[in-house]
User: Fold this.
Amino acid sequence: MMKLKWLGHSCFRVECGDFALVLDPFEPGSVPGCKEIRETAGGVLCSHQHHDHNYIAGVTLKEGENPFHVEALDSFHDDCQGAKRGPNRIHILEAGGVRVAHFGDIGCMPSPAQLERLQNLDAVMIPVGGFYTVGPQEAKAIVDAIHSRVVIPMHYRSESFGFDVLGTVEDFLALCGKVRRAEGDTLEITPGMEPEVVVLAYAGS
Assistant:
C-alpha cells in the first residue's frame, strides 16, 4: 500500500510505511494560491528543473530504509522534442505491492517503449491543465493507452490556486467515466482498486 498526499500543483508526498518521497516541490510564491512546501522525507524527485517543480530546499531529508524502486523515463516538456520547454522525466514508483507513476510536466505522448513500461499502473498522477503540458484530450489519450486503474489529475487551476493560463480540471473530467471528488488531500493506493478518476482536495486553498 502507498499513501499519496497532494501538496498542490504537481507536488505529491508518497509514503510507504515510515518512508516518504516528495515529488516536484515548488518554490515559495511560484504557484498562485499554493502554500509553501515544508516537508520532511527520505528523498526528493524532480521531473525537471523549472522553479515550480524543483524546490528541493523545501524538503528536509531524513535517513531511513527506502522501500521504493524508482524507474525514470526521459520524455519532453512539449510536443517538439523539448525545443520549447526542455526535458521532462516520468517517475515510476514501486513499493508495497503497487506501482504508481508521476508524469511531471509531460508535454507529449510517451514513446511506444515507454507506454509499454507504463502499462497497468495502480495509479497515475498526470497534468491536465494544458498550455505548459498536455491538455485534457492528450492526458486522456495517455491514460487510455496505459490502462491505469486510478487517475489523479494535477497541474490545473481552480478559483483559488494555479496559473491563470491553465485550464480547470472540469474539461478533463468531462472526458472520463467514473469520477470521485475526495474530501481530503490524501488517497491510499492498494492492489486491485476499481478504475476511477479521483480529484483530491487541496488543503491549502
Observations:
- The longest strand covers residues 87-95.
- Residues 136-146 form the longest helix (11 residues).
- The CA atoms of residues 78 and 84 lie 6 Å apart.
- The mean pLDDT is 93.
